[in-house]
Amino acid sequence: MNPPSIPPSPFPRTDGDDAWQALPLRARALFLLGAMPALAVPGAVTGYIAGRIASALSAGRGLGALPMPDPALAGLLLGLLAGGGFGLWLGLKQYRYTLWRLDADGLAVRRGRMWQRETRVPATRVQHLDLKRGPLQRRRRLATLVVHTAGTRHSAVAVANLDLDDAERLRDRLARQIDHDDDD
Amino acid sequence: MTTEPLDPPASEAAATQPQRRLHPMSWLFVLLAQLKQFIVPLIALFLFGRGDRNELWPLIGVGVLAVASLWQYFTYRYGLTAEALVVREGWFERSLRVVPFARIHNVAVQQSVLHRLFGVAEVRLESAGGTKPEAQMRVLKLADALALESLVRRRGAPLPQAAGEASAASAAAGSPATPTVLLALSTGELLRLGLVSNRGMILVGAAVAAFSQTGSRVWPDLFEDVAGIWMGWTDRHHFDTFQYLLGGIAVLLGIVIVLRLLSLALAVLQYHGFVLSQDGRRLTVERGLLARWRTSASRRRIQAWTLREGMVHRLLARRSLEVDTAASEESGQSRALRELAPIATAQACDRLIEGLLPDARWTGLVWRAVPAYSWWRRFLPALPWTLLVAAALTWRFGGWGALALAWLPWAAVSARAQAHRAGYGLGEELVAVREGWWSRHWRFAEIDKLQALRLSRSPLDRRCATATLWLDTAGAGARSPPLRIRFLPEADAQAIYGWLSQELSRRPLRW
């Protein structure tokens, strides 16, 4: 038996509804709000610890105090800035490189630029769908769509901060399935 | 307390007023099950404790728990309708649960030594999803338990009236009245299983952990005594370095042999009389010497398969076959149908797979190799931690710590061999991945059972123009290797990903 050759897709791949969709512009702020505090706090803690270590080392070696009022505080502020800056950069990247697409095969979500991941949930494999809207998302007409499958690793595929109309349209399209299945 | 056969009643009264009760001795088993988690600390407390009265206060909590579980037993009622099992629990807060027979994926009947003494068994009915069983009956009479199991298998259809009619009807229908045995393990196979498995080590590790949690000084005292004896003996005989080394190796070897003997004993105890049988579309596994386990599941519920061949397996020319079913999320080994063939020859495993997956053509699968030039990427993860360990050992022991770096050439050889062996197979109905060299495994699943797909590329993947394809299935426990193809050239990965996306959207989910 010959192995199946990988055929070209018989389904038409037109641009338009099938193309990769980006997230709306107003979602960018939410990504930043998510990433910046999450990275600023560990950055501040690390900076504080580094400042304490630096001051202890310099005192221990007899070099005298470092030429700044309080190394620990300086470390904290530096760490906060560095963490916050990194969070800003990361949030921007996350926003720009999250794309989704609904085509004849199902939902596909693409994330990341350095670590690229594309997740595909075929339409026949959707178990149930969640639409989550936090207070900030409600004010901006955004929603997070979570698609649940029966799998183990990818049992919940989430697309964060979608436009509300898009999210509802996706939910309705993906929820339309007819289960002819019998059991055993 | 009822002794009539378990035929479904004609009336629907059982739907809301289930009448059957559990076995009168159930209270004992419910109590024991609650106390089981406290047995080891209790024993340790009484044997090794310092007799401190304050340590007995937690027993009050244990007592409350035991009373609550006994209360639950007394309010448990179950009944059978034409299509479902009805369970009523509780008195203050009553719950009526209806479990359709068609939705029961897995039926487990268990008997420990105590159960066999009383002639009872514990029954667990599981459906897909969730970690708790849908209905857990602790305990029923053995005959009732087996009758319930066969009722579930028949989906509640009534049994043929007389034995003569039954055999005639089944012969006419062409279906077997008795299940066919697919695999039965002899004692020799059991001994091989013991040699291969790590059960002894796991048991000893668990015992050590359990006893060390009680805060007793058992292990440190034991260790000091043994070390004192050892040191005294070696001092008397004036050993030099070489003999110390030899002695150390001999002690290690002794420990390994003892652990293996323990594994052998455990294997015989747990897998004696292992029989895998097939009855229509249901697979049943029965095993155990003192405690009996009997688990069955429909063949269709098997989500993914793992065929393993470790180093010791290869020495003994055997393999082992495990499956994931959708209900098997708990780590308890006796619950779901997990091991189809704990140990069997390669031909027996292949025959088993061919028999259970006739459309997949397992033996005719064409394997495609993953290009071997990515071998150095399999070697990379070994570098950082080896260097770390070597640095730590050098800092502690001086120059001898650098011996840890000798692991690196071995890791490189292993990585190259793994890269040359790695491959995947893509059939009309089956997708398979093979990995490993020292410890090999084949992981495969029917395409119908795949859930979500993921194509991922790390920065290193992007530089080398490769990608990793992850295929998700249901019920994959932590013990199963992931179904993924690594270091696949990008064009191939995209092509397979695209083809699988279309195929999965075409095929309905066959749960």
Average pLDDT confidence of chain A is 83
Strand order of the largest sheet of chain A: 1-2-3-4
Main sheet record of chain B: 7 strands, antiparallel
Number of strands of chain A: 7
Structural class of chain A: alpha+beta
| Quaternary structure annotation | heterodimer
Q: Enumerate the strands of the largest sheet of chain B in spatial order, edge to edge or round the barrel.
A: 6-5-4-10-9-8-7
What is Rg of chain B? 27 Å
Largest interface: A-B, 38 and 50 residues
Which spans of chain A have pLDDT < 50 for at least 5 consecutive residues? 6-16, 178-184
Output the helix-strand order of chain A: EHHEEEEHEEH
Overall strand count of chain B: 20
Helix content of chain A: 40-55%
DSSP strand (E) fraction of chain A? 15-25%
Number of helices of chain A: 4
Task: Note down, in words, how this protein is organized.
The complex is a heterodimer of chains A (184) and B (511). With 184 residues, chain A is of the alpha+beta class. Helix content of chain A is 41%, strand content 22%. Chain A contains four helices and seven strands. Chain A has a four-stranded antiparallel sheet, with no helix packed on it. In chain A, strand 3 (106-111) and strand 4 form a beta hairpin. Chain B is an alpha+beta fold. Chain B contains 17 helices and 20 strands. A seven-stranded antiparallel sheet of chain B has the order 6-5-4-10-9-8-7. Chain B has a seven-stranded antiparallel sheet with strand order 13-12-11-17-16-15-14. In chain B, a hairpin with an 8-residue loop joins strand 5 (120-126) and strand 6 (135-141). Chain B is globular. The relative contact order of chain B is 0.08. The chains are: A alpha+beta (184), B alpha+beta (511). Chain A binds chain B through residues 1-4, 6-7, 9-11, 104-106, 108, 114-125, 149-155, 157, 179-181, 183-184, and chain B through 102-103, 128-129, 155, 281, 298, 300, 326, 361, 364, 366, 368, 425-428, 450-459, 462, 470, 472-476, 482, 495-499, 501-502, 504-511. Strand 4 (116-122) of chain A pairs antiparallel with strand 18 of chain B.
